[in-house]
Amino acid sequence: MKNNTNPATFVSEALRRCKPYVPKWLYRRIGDRFFKRKQYARALLCYTGTICSKDRLRCGRLGICYGETSNEERMEHFLSQAADLGSRDAMSLLAEHFYTMHNSEKAAYWARRMYAAGMDEARYLLIGSLQALECYDEELIGLLQELAEQGDREARFALGTCYLEGKGVARDYAKAMVWYLLAARQGHPMVQNNVGYMYEEKLIASPGPDAAAVWYLRAASNGCRLGQENLEEFYRKKNLGYFGFREFRIPKWRCHVS
Q: If DSSP states are collapsed to H, E and C, what string results for the chain?
């Protein structure tokens, strides 16, 4: 007579029935093997009720197992437990999880914990979380300033925008332009568009009559749709053709338009 029992179900049932008679340390070792093979449901069965509350490694693994089996509440519990025991991996997983789930307050909390533990990559998560919360305070501005001074073009873009819009700092067009120009010269398309905007709107002294168009063209050539639209509008306002400025060429994005 054929045995139609599913092998996976058979193994799981065998693990469950033998659990009361097998030493906990052995079940933990078996769970480790299943975890390394990414057999999370079986690892979860082995870890549950057998790990010590101070076992940082396995608390973290148990949290991952719950996450892989779609039990977010238990996942957060055990990852938090591992993080409180000093697990950097658990802190990182929690911060990324909450950021992905758009729970910016908890994401910011765990990103701060990561940063305090010496994990510099947490700065990006923390900045993103604080921006999502519209929390433009000294902490956020300080992080942006630190990254901007280290040459990060996204931080320079964000910091320039803070000065342009007066978010977290006093509105200062000169400082906004300083950070924008640094990011624009690194090839950031949206910043190049914003530089053109500031020149066109006369928010800052323009170095020449063609300065706004020059920067709009750079943004457009780098694929910035807004730069393309602003360049067209700039020409329309000036009532000039595409060859109305010195040292200009037809932008690539117009070449295939009849």
A: CCCCCCHHHHHHHHHHHHHHHCCHHHHHHHHHHHHHCCCHHHHHHHHCCCCCCCCHHHHHHHHHHHHHCCCHHHHHHHHHHHHHCCCHHHHHHHHHHHHHCCCHHHHHHHHHHHHHCCCCCHHHHHHHHHHHCCCCCHHHHHHHHHHHHCCCHHHHHHHHHHHHHCCCCCCCHHHHHHHHHHHHCCCCHHHHHHHHHHHHCCCCCCCCCCHHHHHHHHHHHCCCHHHHHHHHHHHHHHCCCCCCCCCCCCCHHHCCCC
- Residues written for the chain: 258
Spatial separation of the C-alpha atoms in residues 102 and 123, rounded to whole Å: 17
CA 174 to chain centre: 29
pLDDT of residue 99: 95
Rounded to two decimals, the pTM is 0.78
> What pLDDT score was predicted for residue 11?
56
Which segments of the chain have a pLDDT < 50? 1-5, 7, 243-258
